[in-house]
Model the fold of this input.
Amino acid sequence: MNVKEFSSRVGISPHTVRYYEKIGLLRDVHRLANGHRDFSEKDISWIGFVQRLKDTGMPLEQIHRYADLRAEGASTLRERHDLLERHASALEQSLAEQQRHLDRLREKIALYRAAMDGRETRLT
Done:
């Protein structure tokens, strides 16, 4: 599939697709005889994983490191595992912190609800 079809399927712009190829996140993209890119289902799967890492807050530098390790093959399994473990741990900590913030917001909302219902409450 060409860049336009690929970008539509993965939900990123053609510009971003080209950028990812330029910086090495998309590697070994097949080219047709006319030089046009011909993306595969494997490329879709890979970019889906890259997007997931990005959506979970992994910095592009770390994603690129993961891509480099992936390109090196099976000898980097431990390092890829460890990189993902560290990211998962950081994500768990972030989620826990966000949950604490959400809990405090819900408490404040409950105070406002009580005040609006005419129940006495102390708002700060």
